[in-house]
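User: I would dearly like some help making sense of a protein record. This is the protein in question:
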Amino acid sequence: MALNVQHITEDMEDQLELKVFLEKDLPQSEIEAVGSRFEEHENVTSVAFESKEDALDNMYEDLEEYQGILDGLSEDNPLPQSYILRVDEGTNIEAVSAFASEVEGVERVNYGENYVDALLNFNEFANILSLAVLAILTGISIFIIYNTIKLTVFSRRKEITIMRYVGATNWYIRMPFIIEGSLLGVTGAIVAVLTVRNVYFYLLGAMAG
């Protein structure tokens, strides 16, 4: 489940975009020059130009229920031209935004700073939580195996004493207990994984249905 949360947040990071609005009436040659600057940046993975017409069409799609109000915009389109940038990692989006803001011909940059910060913080929390859960489960497993071996040794203390009297080495005595503890640990891990897997897919199917 923790891994699924991590995958979801990583997928959301991959969808993060910066919208770079260009200055009004910028010549085509300068628009292309601005795009070239973005393409040269090492952390930018894709650069897409959005014309005023494209921006208006997208607004019509997003605000379809208000199309009557928006109809008048087609005659004198006030929307700016822009570039839509994607970055390689969410943690680099602030640096790319700062770079884009300094490019000549750029009016402003928008990437939903509060949303991005919240997403990155949540991703970091999910990673820490995953490691903490893994450490706790590992500790519990070691504790169970240790106590199982200890109880087994205690219950067979007479056999161990006899084996020592007949000259058995420490490793010869310990090895069966080590093997038994390892088998119990592996079996317990398999049962736990299968149980969690079945419960997870059951809940997933219940929510989907």
Summary: The chain has eight helices and four strands. Residues 113-155 form the longest helix (43 residues). The chain has two domains: 17-110, 134-208.
